[in-house]
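Read as chain and fold; for instance:
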Amino acid sequence: MSAEAPATPGDEGLEPIRRVKTLETENAGKLEEIRARSRSEIDGITREAEGAVAASRTAGEAARDRAIAEARSTADREAEAILAEGRTKAAAIRGRTPAELAALKEPVLSAVLGEFRAKGKRPEA
């Protein structure tokens, strides 16, 4: 057997490998730039979303407070109307005789307790 040295490729054979390595390095740099830009955009969008959530929460709390105040005001007006009606009816029965008051007993009880009485216990007024 002959002892020949294996042929070594020339520099022109390594050129495609060098180009691939150069492209890999360039693309790795571009990819890192894109990732950094993406992280920056995501951070900005996250801050913007957090600000929108905070603003919505504040607006929601203000709307809730207005609704509660309005409901209280409405309830106060309704309560005052009920009390005024009660005062009017109380004034109407003041000074009546016991017989007249006894005659008013069932209609008053039916009006006050009507929805709580059983069906058979409701005398028609």
Q: What stands out?
A: Residues 19-79 form one domain. The chain is about 80% helix and 0% strand. The radius of gyration is 45 Å.
